[in-house]
Amino acid sequence: MAGLSIKDARKHFGTTEVLKGVSIDVADGEFTVIVGPSGCGKSTLLRSVAGLEELTNGRIRIGDRDVTGLAPSERGIAMVFQSYALYPHLTVYENMAFALRIAKADKVAIDAAVRRAAAILNIEPLLDRKPAALSGGQRQRVAIGRAIVRQPQIFLFDEPLSNLDADLRVRMRYEFAELHRQLGTTTLYVTHDQVEAMTLADRIIVMRDGRIEQVGTPRELYARPANIFVAQFLGTPR
Ligand code: ADP
Ligand code: MG
């Protein structure tokens, strides 16, 4: 495992600056949640860490490696989005095994990784099904399973629960907490849901308009918000 360090991340789309110098350190094994209103740059930041966007300026380190400029597959990261596209023609098992097959892992290792992830996520009975035969929550578990089997150094989650209904969202919240307890993987998790952030985070980063407003434990932010924006954002559950 390894920690994650983002130094002075800046990103322009044309003449618009959407990341205005963001620096974040996530300690080894820490679960850090980024919250902030829609459009403040959360996804752009995560996509930049994953290597799906190129920063205009800044450096990204994972453990002792500078990964700035590396291809996504070389970074040791697994990312789960809110719209989790599973391969519809493949079974759950094959969806989870896919990345390992591409990486030419051996059959026995693939089988062990898929079954271990399936056990953690409680989807062992679903391994032979196709995505069309799964509920929304089950599909999201498979998407997370695909991330787990790769045994990444870092998990990136971009609003992974926002397409699920409210009940399921609450249940999956506990599953994320349990997953982290079991695997301990360094995690950067983006949400615009304050309750999700307060429940899951070791540390919360509040973003607004391409900048960080405040960083702290849920307790610190709740007790001592740095300004009215943070207080209002964390204080009004939706
Ligand atoms: P969030 O995830 O916090 O809702 P985003 O990172 O998706 O915010 O977007 C931040 C800003 O960057 C928004 O104003 C969005 O319109 C803009 N943006 C995101 N991606 C692109 C892109 N590919 N081209 C131009 N503008 C973009
Ligand atoms: Mg987003």
UniProtKB/TrEMBL annotation:
<keyword id="KW-0547">Nucleotide-binding</keyword>
<keyword id="KW-0762">Sugar transport</keyword>
<comment type="similarity">
    <text>Belongs to the ABC transporter superfamily.</text>
</comment>
<feature type="domain" description="ABC transporter">
    <location>
        <begin position="4"/>
        <end position="234"/>
    </location>
</feature>
<dbReference type="GO" id="GO:0008643">
    <property type="term" value="P:carbohydrate transport"/>
</dbReference>
<dbReference type="GO" id="GO:0016887">
    <property type="term" value="F:ATP hydrolysis activity"/>
</dbReference>
<keyword id="KW-0067">ATP-binding</keyword>
<keyword id="KW-0378">Hydrolase</keyword>
<keyword id="KW-0813">Transport</keyword>
<dbReference type="GO" id="GO:0140359">
    <property type="term" value="F:ABC-type transporter activity"/>
</dbReference>
<dbReference type="GO" id="GO:0055052">
    <property type="term" value="C:ATP-binding cassette (ABC) transporter complex, substrate-binding subunit-containing"/>
</dbReference>
<dbReference type="GO" id="GO:0005524">
    <property type="term" value="F:ATP binding"/>
</dbReference>
<protein>
    <submittedName>
        <fullName>Multiple sugar transport system ATP-binding protein</fullName>
        <ecNumber>3.6.3.-</ecNumber>
    </submittedName>
</protein>
